[in-house]
Structure formats: structure tokens, C-alpha cells
Amino acid sequence: MKKRSTVEKVLKWINQYFLFFTLVAFVITCSTMLFVSVLRDSLQITLTDENIGTAAQITFLNVLFLSLLFTLIDAFRRKIAIERPVKRITDAAEKIIQGDFSARIKPHRSFGADDSFGRIAECFNQMATELGSVETLRTDFIANVSHEMKTPLSVMQNYGTLLQSPDLPDEKRMEYAKAVTDASRRMADMITNILKLNRLENQQIYPEVTEFDLGEQLCECLLQYENVWEKSQIEIHTDIAENVTVKADSELLNLVWNNLFSNAFKFTESGGTVSLSLTATAHHAIVKVADTGCGMTAEVGSHIFEKFYQGDTSHATYGNGLGLALVKKVIDILQGSIHVESALGVGTTFTVRIRRGSYGF
After folding, report:
1. Which domains does the chain have, with CATH numbers?
2. To 5 degrees, how large is the angle CA 198–CA 202–CA 206?
3. N- to C-terminal Cα distance for the chain?
4. Whole-structure pTM over 0.90, yes or no?
5. pLDDT at 350 over 80
6. Cα(326)–Cα(296) distance, rounded to whole angstroms?
7. What's the rounded Cα separation, in Å, for the pair 186 and 148?
């Protein structure tokens, strides 16, 4: 392989030499003929065969020398201006192929040279950064899914083993069976959410826009948690403006409200308060879901829309950290915005702004 590469370089060099030889020979021949013709006509000089032969030999040697000189200069130029930056790019590309996404190309600057390779290097480095981020997300996603699935599987395995005991009382048998059912339901919900999030991120779900009353939808979603707030003695406050209609996908918005209400009731202790308000402007509907729960720090608040992130691990058995990631993705698809305000021991407020008009899907 190395021998073949050397032969190719020699052939390439010879090819370059003959290219310059032809070019220089043509230029010098034309220039010499023009010069001699003008000189002969102007000075009335008679050229002999001996003069022409000597001049031809000198011209031929001059062509050989200039061709060699131009070939060496061009080889040096190509080495500095082309081969070096190309080698840097190919070396970095080979590292990317091998899975090393930390590979970067150092900027190449040459005085008076075209900056095309510099722009290629910048684009390559940006691509490598994006690929590294995607790879990190993929690795984290696999690790998080594995971890989240391991917990309910361990629960089902442990309680399944206990259920095999022949002298197990019926009361315990029911308790263990319920634990197995809850763990399997949690794993099924997690898989469902992963599939939904994957379809949303790959734009396999296209919003079906209809016009509907947003206040009615919010009330219907909130009433689904009536048993939850009555059991926990949570007080409900509502301030819903009437006749606020929006043009959006009602099914996707149902996913948003159900996740926000579920979180509000999950983190609100018995005797606390969950509030819902709806206001509207000419172009937007503003929904606020607030609770008097445990709240969170600014650091936790900056990560809550990330997949599998759970700031309060004490409530981890009630979710899988995908709900708010789904909410954020839906809001982005509907070209809205979501904002969170929270303080430890005070509570949390989610504010969602939705466009009331049509969307450019």
C-alpha cells in the first residue's frame, strides 16, 4: 500500500512537470517568435541557421529549468495550502468515524490564501460538537431507560417470588399482587410516554387543529382528579375566563394539562392548595397551574423539562421524569411557551401561553 502511494506521488509529480513544461514552452516560444520577428523587421537583421540553432538550444534549456522551478514552487504551495489542511480534515474525520467525537480541526490561516478550508474546518467542528451532543443524549437516554425499567422489574420479581409462598395470608397476597400491578403499570406508562416522545421528536405526530373552548377543556381535565384532591383534602381555586376559544390540537393540549395537574397534586401535601387560572389577550391564551407544594430550587427548575430528570427523588415512584419533557415538546409544536416559577417550601407555578389563531403546520 505504501509502495503504491509512493508510485502515485511520483506519477503525479511527473504529470505536473509535463503540464508546466508544455505551458512554459508554449509561452516562451510565442514570446520569442514575436520578439525576434519585431527585432528583425526593426533593425533589418538577417538571422542565420547557426544563430537560430543556438537560440533554440538556450530557449529549450530555459524551458526545462523554468518548468522544474514552477513544478517545485507549485508542489510547495500545494503542500502548505492544500495537503496540510486536507490531512487535518481527513484525520479528524477518521477519529469521528471511530467514535471519537472530541476531534476538532485547528484553524488554518495562510497569508493571501483562500479561506475555504477555514470555513470547512468551522463547519466540521460544529458538526462534531452536534454529533457529540447527540451521542451523549443517546447514551444518557439508554442509561436512564435501563435504570427506570430496572426498578419496576425488580419490584415485580421480588413480589412475584413472595407470592409463590404457599402459606402466604390472603391479605399479604393481595398486597403483593397490587405492588406487582402498580409496578407493571408504571413500566407500561413509561414505555407509552417514550413512544409518544419519540413520535413527537421525529415529527410523526401532526397537530389536528380544531377550534374549541379552552376553559371547558381545562375544567374537564381538572375534574378527572376530583378523587385525588378529595382524598388528600386539597383545596381547589379556579379563575377561568369565559368564551376563550383557541385553534389547536385538543388531544395534545389534554396531554399538557393532565401532566401539569398530575404534578401539582403529586407535590402538594394534604391541606394544600392547587390553583388554575385562564386569561386571554387578542392573540394568546394564558393558563396558570399553581400549587403550594414543596417547590424547587432554580437549579432544579432549569432541568425539569429534560427527559428522565426528577428533582424530587422522594416522589420518583409516582413518575418517570418524562411528563414535563412531553409537555415542553407539545408546547413547542403548538408554537407556544411554558415558564416555571418556584421556591422551596412555597410552591410552583407553571405558566403556559398558547396562540389563539391558526398555526403554520
Report:
1. 2-100 (no CATH), 136-201 (1.10.287.130), 213-355 (3.30.565.10)
2. 100
3. 55
4. no
5. yes
6. 20
7. 10
